[in-house]
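Obj: model holo form, ligand = heme C.
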Amino acid sequence: MKWWWSTVLMVSIAGCSGGADGPDALAVMEGEAIYRAECATCHGNKLEGQPEWRTPRPDGKLPAPPHDATGHTWHHPMELLLAITKLGMVPPHAPQGYVSDMPAFGGKLSDRQIQRVLLYIESQWPPDIRAQRIERFGK
Ligand code: HEC
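Output (holo structure tokens):
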């Protein structure tokens, strides 16, 4: 089992556009710190999201979805996750005029910090999900 896990890890490292230093344990730790500071209030300490996250609230907005294996974050390619985190729920990722609580982090976090926080989220997905992503997206 161990060799398989490290193969998955290596493939995802090789597939990452993260730059020279690559996603090492330190980068994941930095991502976790950013997650706790910027994302956990809505997406949950354990990436569990908000209750009833599929049901719009009375104001029409959706609660924050989980980023763990029960959510749909892992269904999306990394490019899309980076874009949503940076720009928020705007076209082409959402309809024109769509109203959402998801902030645009572009003015607050650097691209590198956004990559790291998503790297942390990715690091929490179980091996079978990571393997499915490699099959679907090549990374
Ligand atoms: C103020 C609450 C709030 C904060 C803080 C927040 N989000 Fe969100 N996020 C949401 C909501 C609500 C949605 C669902 C948007 C929708 O569909 O209307 C969402 C959706 C998303 C999505 C797209 C949905 C998916 O599962 O693919 C991503 C990616 C995401 N958030 C990442 C982050 C990251 C990374 C952070 C921290 C840097 C963060 N969010 C911080 C509320 C928040």
